[in-house]
Design goal:
271 residues, alpha/beta, Rossmann fold, six-stranded parallel sheet, 10 helices, 6 strands, globular, enoyl-[acyl-carrier-protein] reductase (NADH) activity, fatty acid metabolism, NAD(P)-bd_dom_sf, fatty acid biosynthesis
Length: 271
């Protein structure tokens, strides 16, 4: 059921790779709720994914951009305003990648050049995106920027290695830039810490299946799905959350507040 939460709003959605992507689900929900928007991803990701299919479904223009390139981001915001007919009202940052994880490097044996890439792609790209929008005055007053994160920024999960550090930086940027953007333009900036979700990116992390089951048995409501996350992000884009900013918002079925569950205790007692 659509509620018209984004009627008349314009936006930019990054990171939609395939139909498993949370960003893909957000785009479909945003369209359903009345928004117009552009889609963006890195050129290499666009070659790997099916973003053209999504663009057709949403009647959206694709603007390729490497999120680590300020020049590309300037083009993204400038062209998006031209295509959409004015400033944007919402932006989704759904960007993250760790060469160390992809190549199986342990946290105690990181390749530091790859580590810098993890930080640049997964966190500094968020600052670059916000700073570019800020300098171009590309986001309307009371606009909303949301970045996707994970609670490994607060707690240690062995398989998440240097991405945990990147997410910690990402969340800090949301607070630091959120304060400044809020003071100057009433733009709000938040992060959403989602349950482990079987996306293409998430599925590539070693041990993901076992941890997904563990989180599902720990969270009193179970794991939140990608579709449910998209619903939550849409509320953050809407005017219903105008006074919410600089927050890291857990969308994880209660996992983040649960020490141990009865289901997990029962599993342990069976061993």
């Amino acid at each position: 059921m659509a509620y018209g939460l984004l009627n008349g709003k314009r936006g930019i959605i990054s990171g939609a790779l395939d139909e498993k992507s949370i960003a893909w689900k957000v785009a479909l929900k945003a369209k359903e709720e009345g928004a117009t928007f552009t889609l963006t991803n890195a050129p290499i990701a666009m070659r790997m994914g099916a973003i053209k299919q999504l663009a057709e479904q949403c009647d959206a223009e694709i603007i390729p951009a490497d999120a680590t390139s300020v020049e590309d981001l300037e083009n993204l915001f400038t062209k998006s305003q031209e295509v959409l007919g004015g400033k944007v009202d919402f932006v989704l940052h759904s960007i993250g990648m760790s060469p160390n994880i992809r190549k199986g490097k342990a946290y105690t044996d990181l390749n530091y050049d790859w580590f810098k890439q993890s930080i640049d792609i997964s966190a500094l790209s968020f600052h670059k995106m916000l700073q570019t929008a800020y300098k171009l005055d590309a986001i309307s007053e009371w606009g909303s920027v949301v970045a996707l994160t994970y609670m490994a920024a607060q707690r240690t999960f062995p398989f998440y290695t240097d991405m945990a550090d990147a997410k910690a930086v990402l969340e800090s940027i949301a607070r630091s830039f959120g304060y400044r953007y809020g003071k100057s333009h009433k733009v709000r900036v938040n992060t959403v810490s989602q349950s482990p979700t079987p996306t293409t990116a998430g599925g590539g992390i070693g041990g993901f299946d076992k941890f997904y089951d563990f989180a599902d048995k720990t969270a009193p409501l179970g794991n939140a799905t990608a579709d449910q996350c998209a619903d939550y992000v849409i509320t953050l884009f809407s005017d219903l959350t105008r006074m919410v900013t600089m927050q890291n918002l857990f969308h994880d079925g209660g996992f983040s507040m649960t020490g141990i569950s009865e289901d997990v205790m029962n599993l342990i007692s069976k061993e």
